[in-house]
Amino acid sequence: MRALQSLLLTSAAIAGVAMPAVAATTTERYCLITDVTAFENRVHIRCTQPPTPSTGNSSSSAAEAKLDKFLYDQTPYFAVESSTPLAGHVATLGAAAMQTGMVVRIVFRTDSSLNPVGCQKNDCRRLLSFWMIK
């Protein structure tokens, strides 16, 4: 199969035909930033679950809250390479959001094989974008 894929890509390149890119899975999450750290090779933020408005005491919302907490605890870090233009924005906006307690919305890759160098597969994912929420 790999030989066929390689042959198709090579043939497409020679013919000047664009092959469709394989879409990496992304997802979004609300986040309360508790840490912004700059390393030599990456900048990362640490997220915790932001407070949510009370929806009553239903067992359904309690179960959802436990699942959300589990997901936040499993992947608290989101990083970009320090060599990318996004790194400075992550550091600046991340620090501002942390200092003001503003909630941010983040977009990140779910596949840990796409993590930046130094971003551990068990607790970190590649950050694609984020913005502050009023």
Structure description:
A hairpin with a 3-residue loop joins strand 1 and strand 2 (42-48). By secondary structure, this protein is an alpha+beta fold. Strands 1-2-3-5-4 form a five-stranded mixed barrel. The radius of gyration is 19 Å and the shape is globular. The chain has helices at residues 2-15, 59-74, 86-100; strands spanning 26-38, 42-48, 77-81, 103-109, 124-132. Residues 1-22 and 53-59 have low confidence and may be disordered.
Which helices and strands, and how do they pair?
Elements: H1 2-15, E1 26-38, E2 42-48, H2 59-74, E3 77-81, H3 86-100, E4 103-109, E5 124-132
Parallel strand pairs: 3-5
Antiparallel strand pairs: 1-2, 1-4, 2-3, 4-5
Show unreliable segments: 1-22, 53-59
Query: What is the CA-atom radius of gyration, in angstroms?
Result: 19 Å
Distance between the termini: 49 Å
Residue share in β-strands: 25-35%
For the biggest β-sheet, the strand order reads 1-2-3-5-4
Specify the overall morphology.
globular
Average of pLDDT: 77
Number of strands: 5
Q: SSE order in H/E notation?
A: HEEHEHEE
Count helical runs. 3
Structural class: alpha+beta
Largest sheet: 5 strands, mixed, barrel
Helix content percent band: 25-40%
Write a short abstract of this structure:
This protein is of the alpha+beta class and 134 residues long. The protein has 3 helices and 5 strands; from the N terminus they run αββαβαββ. The model is unreliable at 1-22 and 53-59 (pLDDT under 50).
